[in-house]
Amino acid sequence: MPQYERILITGAAGRLGSELRKGLVPLAKTIRLAGREPFGDLAAHEEEAVFDLADMEATIAATKDCDAIVHFGGAPLECAWQTILDSSIRGSYHIYEGARKHGVKRVIYASSVHAIGYHEVEAHIGVDAPVRPDSLYGVSKNFVESLSRLYWDKFGIETVCLRIFSSFPEPADRRMLWSYLSFADCVRLVEASLTAPRVGHTISFGISDNKVKTVDNSGANHLGFHPQDSAEPHRSAVEAKTPVPDPKRPSVKYLGGWFCELGHPDDEPKS
């Protein structure tokens, strides 16, 4: 029997949102898909809400009658400050206000490794390590992690913040041999976050069961997430097609990878 009457998925047209659209079907009688464009054909259990997260009234309206929100919407990468401010920061505030006003009890938020990207790989940090964003994108993740903490402490809305590392069909480079999160494990992580009896305010790393362990996720063991995939079957192919990187480069030294080598997104490009 589905645990929820209605789950709202923001960013439902995105790379991970599309996987969650399929993977979370057993958990809810109705799944409301949120995006900026119509979704086209909908399954019998699906409904759509077309709006921009920057639109406070529309975003709050989309949360009505939902008992859980899987918030994967917002800027997907480092980009112009105004975009991050409107979609990721203001947009997430609108989501939490909708949750507060409409009695939503649990939010699953797509945070990112870039919230802690300037920790060194060798530091083997846990989920309680200080934030060290590597970008304005990472700062937006820090903001929503803090916002969700406030809404748990003050308003009793539970949140699981998933610091997703590299979730793609398969590892594309040597960094992903330790940072890889398979699509199936991503769905398992969100499912565990939705079904755990009590989560309060939880931060969890989103990473598969890769051979090389770079972080300690034991602080989120109460979610009951057990990754079943690994980057290891892809190792030989990845190592054959990608050169060994310079270990002194920030993209190798820090958890955030190439984000640590980016400049400010609003600077004029060099000719």
Automatic annotation (TrEMBL):
Domain NAD-dependent epimerase/dehydratase: 7-168
Domain of life where this protein originates: Bacteria
UniProt feature, compositional bias: Basic and acidic residues: 229-238
Keywords: NAD, Oxidoreductase
GO molecular-function term, one example from the UniProt record: oxidoreductase activity
Gene3D superfamilies according to UniProt: NAD(P)-binding Rossmann-like Domain (3.40.50.720)
Ranges for region Disordered: 219-252
Family affiliation: Belongs to the NAD(P)-dependent epimerase/dehydratase family.
Name of the protein this chain belongs to: NAD-dependent epimerase/dehydratase
The organism of origin for this protein: Mesorhizobium amorphae CCNWGS0123
